[in-house]
Amino acid sequence: MTQTLAAATEIAQRRLGTTRVRLPMLGFGAAPIGNLYTAVSDDEAMRAIGSALGEGIRYFDTAPYYGYGLSEARLGLGLKGVRRDSVRISTKVGRRIYEDTSREPGREGFAVAGRKAEFDYSRDGVMRSFESSLQRLGTDHVDILLLHDIGRLTHGDNHPAMLRQALDEALPAMAELKSSGACGAIGIGVNEEDIAVELMPLFPLDCVMLAGRYTLLEQHASRRIMQGAQARNIGVLVAGPYNSGLMSDARAPGSTYNYAPAEPEVLQRAQRIYAICAEHGVDVGAAALQFPLAHPAVVSVVAGMRSAEEAISASLRYRAEVPAELWQQLRAEGLLQDWARTLGGAAA
């Protein structure tokens, strides 16, 4: 039986570049239900997806790499019976998943044993990966297909060769899938800004998913991306708005930033942001979630969710009232870049 979702609490949508895809402004990041860092039970994952749907969240982002297929499989199960045209799904290509009984859980951050992931930007690799993703997701198409983790920080000295293969094989294969209707838009999903700036003039992308680079805590490295995206009508999807948790907890900041121990100056900056949010009675997570959405290049912000509670929290943060005075104070104290946009006003 197909489930029709109630419209009362739906998240507002924005058009993705020049495509026909209209994307909700808040998305469910499904890496955590792929057992990112710690295991999540099937029941917990289903409750997280169900709560997200109940909160009006209709965009779900996943990848084969997230739990070596576990995230996609759980997402497919959680959306089973939901009308396909009522939700948006993005997944990724660029890695192939293999069985490997020697692999212990916890490798590469995922608490999953018996599987491994290897980079593959070949045409055949893209097509095989995509077909496997469709099977796990239980669908015949996705709304967005992203090339995952291309870039020099990921590939080091192999970057030129990997980029050449991506341009010659992976991206053209993705364009074929778009032309066939198997996906509605194509782009890249990365953690580094340089590759996005490098690729935008080289291949017609619809979108860039950028993790942790245009956030309440960090904007300095993303100006070129935003300018290039606006100039080419490329939609920006902001993932990692909490910078791996430092900007999500209403308590004093922890010690991790972008999945690594935070430097003292980063903690000091975070603590000042916390203090200003507290002065205005605003949850720092709400400010962090809403900040990227003020930029005209940004189509959606994707926050990781591993539980029903986190899905409900993300929804509340998205809908929270954040006064213009908070953004003004952050800018006045040099905590926002001059060019960054804020809700209720343009850049200075």
From TrEMBL:
Gene3D superfamilies given in the database record: NADP-dependent oxidoreductase domain
One Gene Ontology cellular component: cytosol
InterPro entries: AKR, NAD(P)_OxRdtase_dom_sf, NADP_OxRdtase_dom
Xref: Pfam families: Aldo_ket_red
TM regions (residue ranges): none
Ranges of residues in domain NADP-dependent oxidoreductase: 26-319
Coiled-coil regions listed: none
A GO MF term: oxidoreductase activity
Identification of the protein by name: L-fucose dehydrogenase
